[in-house]
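From the shared-data thread, chain only:
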Amino acid sequence: MNRAIYRARKRTNLVLLTISGLAVLFGLFWLAWILGTLFYEGGHALARATLYYQMTPPPGADGGLANAIVGSALLVTVGTLLGTPIGILAGTYLAEFGKRNWLANATRFLNDVLLAAPSIVIGLFIYAIYVAQVRHFSGWAGALALALIVIPVVVRTTDDMLKLVPNSLREATAALGCPAWKMIVFVTCRAARTGIITGILLAVARISGETAPLLFTSLNNQFWSVNMNAPMSNLPTVIFQFAMSPYQDWQRLAWGGAALITLTVLTLNIVARSLFRRTH
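Structure, as tokens:
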């Protein structure tokens, strides 16, 4: 009787392991196909030095993506700097002070709604409250739109990571007479540092390829410009414009830009995980 039950369980375990393995291979196959196509099509453009120091060209001319690369770097950096502190502070409040608070519950619900909101809605919101008022597109508008995308990701990650910190650490700190703010800054936030940084990197990865909100805010600029109060070139918009064009040289640059964004996000994740890897 026991042997029959054991054999039945072993067969069930084998079947489920096989199905799970096939599902993993199925997902990895499409991921490898996408990445392979991306680097196959964009590898030639990445290998060319002109991609990094020449401006976006007119049709039929040689050029690069220097202005779009710098513009994207500025927009992502400013958007991250604007959204990250707000997200960390809000997530800390939810985890440390809002455990049984109606305001915290409402904030979590609205944060989840904002987290799932289409990015084009955020772009239209910034267009209505900022671009339409100042009557011109600008890098600041694009950075604000990206910051609104960063905030819910960082809030959710910070809230979840701080909840994973054992309460025994908080109790031990309180028993030593440590103020609450010191306990949060020097104990719980340090314990959850790796998870919070991972959440920030996830937010950076998400906004690095956002096109829809930038179409309504920073728009695009064919020329070199670091003026945040004027339309600013950026990689997602340039990729969208060049990929939809009938010109092969523009399409090659679009593949190169997409591969560059992917490599940048991958490098950021690898470096961050290497720097903040825990050793036991």
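The radius of gyration is 23 Å.
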